[in-house]
Design brief:
With 486 residues, the chain is mostly helical. Helix content is 47%, strand content 4%. The termini are far apart.
């Protein structure tokens, strides 16, 4: 019978061996070699450097669960940022977004309408009240043609049979891009990872200029919503007993190790603060889910800190104390931000074939051609680089892949719904857009065949706009981090 001390140290060793760094929000680690399709010369570079007041990420280290180092992603962002800025700032297609900003109900029934409401003028969103301010093809007069008997909106099966380019079979006229105005009738396709915004004529919603409503400090305290997102979307698992199959498989030749690890886990569970959660034997898919949420939170924090209102001088600029408190002291958050950049850029890269046949419709043929040229240049430039994220290894467990993917999809849809609880209009705008952006990225990564087109699920205009603008948000966050670190 081992002594209590020996049992404790054996338990500690076994616990770390079986579930090291299981919580991606609280810890970070070097990427395992199987995550990437290529070998890395610097795969064993220490992740953290301690040559400053706070732990700093080593630029040569590999971003965990991705296939590139931090410095590689920084260099890639520097190269692609001008192209991305041009797309989001100077094309009508990607600068305007329609969403239901005011009429969706918060799913948390315990929160009344006055909970967390922002009365600050900085929270206000300037919507486009005059339809003359948006391209004609998106106006209600054009969209309403879909309601008439001549151009009846086809169901999903009929759309599939007719193809994505002519679902109305020319009933709107030969010069009308039908894919510009046709949307699905239902709220979610079974392959959607978010609650998409509806641009149809009968849907409630407002057009906003994303250029005129920048993501920045508003004074709104959104922590209750983030708490709800983290709390309601955790993949909780009960702590295993000594007969746990996963532990038994790992340590089948040493029952004392299994018992020790289980005993220590039970002690930790009994004493761990309630604000923490345990991701026991976390699989890659669940870890990726939490990294996306944490990275999205980190990106939003970066925009708040880098474009902060100095209430004494009335000027906007970086707030280094905000940066220190929200980011510099938490390298795991910064790591997750880099991870999200790799994931989003990989999704845009994977859309290259789809985008070659996509109809960009703003009513201005010359601008539409320029828009397509710009987005294809971005995707081609990214594709010319080594793979930075490998989605093919996810959801491969033959015993659990389907159920795990459905759980993953449903949980992210829940995040979409929780964004309707944000009490600040501008924060809700960017929160809803970015959840759609990440949801679209996940849809592309896990439901699309890269070299096929017609067999892939179609993207709504709002999904493509959200994806590219979300990538732009994260890209700008990386740039701002570099500036605030300097």
């Amino acid at each position: 019978m081992p002594s209590a001390a020996k049992l404790f140290f054996l338990a500690v060793f076994t616990l770390f061996q079986s579930s090291h760094a299981n919580d991606p929000v609280k810890s970070i680690k070097s990427a395992p070699s199987e995550i990437c399709a290529v070998r890395h010369h610097n795969a064993k570079v220490p992740l953290l450097a301690s040559n400053s007041q706070y732990p700093q990420i080593n630029p040569k280290a590999i971003v965990s669960d991705a296939c590139a180092s931090y410095s590689t992603l920084d260099n890639l962002n520097t190269a692609l940022a001008p192209s991305l800025k041009s797309i989001t700032q100077s094309t009508d297609f990607f600068a305007y977004y329609r969403l239901n900003l005011y009429d969706q109900k918060c799913p948390v029934t315990a929160w009344d309408d006055e909970t967390g409401t922002c009365g600050n003028i900085a929270c206000k969103v300037d919507t486009l009240e005059d339809e003359k301010d948006i391209p004609e093809i998106w106006r209600a007069s054009e969209l309403s043609k879909l309601e008439g008997p001549k151009a009846a909106h086809p169901g999903k099966q009929l759309q599939k049979e007719r193809g994505s380019q002519r679902p109305l079979q020319g009933n709107l006229g030969e010069n009308v891009g039908e894919s510009c105005v046709v949307e699905y009738d239902d709220e979610c396709d079974e392959r959607d990872y978010c609650i998409p915004e509806d641009e149809s004529a009968t849907a409630k919603g407002d057009y906003v200029s994303l250029v005129d409503n920048p993501e920045r400090y508003t004074g709104y305290a959104g922590q209750p919503v983030w708490d709800a997102i983290y709390r309601e979307n955790c993949f909780f698992k009960s702590l295993p007993s000594s007969s746990s199959p996963s532990l038994s498989n790992l340590f089948s030749n040493n029952d004392h190790k299994v018992e020790a690890a289980a005993a220590l886990r039970n002690v930790i569970q009994a004493n761990i603060p309630k604000s923490y959660f345990i991701l026991d034997d976390t699989c890659l898919e669940k870890r990726v889910f939490h990294r996306i949420i944490s990275g999205m939170h980190a990106s939003i924090s970066t925009h708040i800190c880098s474009d902060y209102l100095n209430q004494t001088t009335g000027t906007w600029g970086p707030n280094l104390q905000c940066y220190t408190d929200r980011l510099a002291k938490h390298p795991e958050r910064v790591s997750n931000l880099y991870f999200n950049y790799a994931l989003l850029l990989r999704a845009v890269t994977k859309l290259r074939t789809y985008l070659k046949n996509y109809t960009f419709c703003s009513g201005d043929v010359t601008q539409d051609l320029a828009t397509k040229s710009k987005i294809l240049h971005l995707a081609d430039s990214a594709a010319a680089q080594p793979r930075i994220f490998d989605e093919s290894i996810m959801f491969q467990d033959p015993h659990d892949a389907g159920g795990l993917k459905e759980d993953f999809r449903n949980r992210f849809r829940n995040v979409s719904r929780l964004m309707d609880c944000v009490g600040c209009d501008k924060c809700r705008l960017w929160g809803k857009l970015q959840t759609v952006g990440y949801g679209t990225a996940l849809k592309v990564l896990f439901e699309y065949e890269e070299d096929k087109n017609g067999e892939n699920p179609p993207l709504r205009r709002t999904e493509l706009v959200a994806l590219v603008n979300t990538l732009d948000r994260v890209a700008r966050s990386l740039t701002a981090l570099g500036e605030m670190r300097a």
